[in-house]
Amino acid sequence: MKRVLKSLMVILIIILSFSFTKINYPLVIYDDLGRVINIQREPKRIVSLAPSSTEILFALNLNDKIVGVTDFCDYPKEAQNKEKVGGFSNPNIEKIVSLNPDLVILYKSFPKEIFNQLTQLLPNTNFVVLDPKNFEDVLNNILLLGKITNKEKQAQYIYSNIVRRLKTVERKLIPFRGKINVLFLLWNDPFISCSPSTFVGDLLKKLKVKNIVEKDTPEYPVLSVEYIIQKNPDIIIIGEMSGISIESIIKKPEFSSISAVKNKKIFYINDDLVFRPGPRLIEGLETLYKIIYESK
Q: What's this model's pTM, rounded to 2 decimal places?
């Protein structure tokens, strides 16, 4: 009987999770800067000024509503066919204005001067600023954009799927007790890594490993060769776009005593999976798990 009741509860939860009604506009929301934004109607023309928000919008099935993206928005492949509005730090203001968007998604680090110009030139456009700090913030951003764009049901589906995959990784971690020292390298001249306050740092914390960078600031510290040797990482993970070759690390004489070098535990990872605060961050977590716990 208990099993039947439990099954009914699960079915009820699933039904409720998919029973969101259409959003009633106008809608009042708060963006990540705490600004109150009045969304008068469902957005029809969206410009995304960051690759990660572009990925979220496509995941929400808003392909037909996206009218402009940055030059760096390359995922999914459909994003490559969208109108380009320039780079992150130097967007083409005239181009954005000409697209006549009713919603612009951008990040806190977007140039403030350009932001002010855009808000003056597009007084009837909603500008939503995102500023995720960790994995959980990304999940909240997905829900927020789903609500704004009348894709709440799809957003909840994405959210639930990511949480389910996160729980799966967490269950796999239960048998592991010891701390593994990990070095994540972004650059090698000089050596630059990621602090615990970055997305990479947050993912490493979730995987119960010890980031050899212990301080939160600076977010991307320069590490001396002596520091790396002293911390003796068991695993070294290199961003694919860093330009660092595994061979160069192995052949560096000073690193010959490091465990990761002696045991050839040096791996690449697709940077976009661990640096873009979008739906693929969970894929980044799963990939890191395989590198750290399943690689031979």
A: 0.89
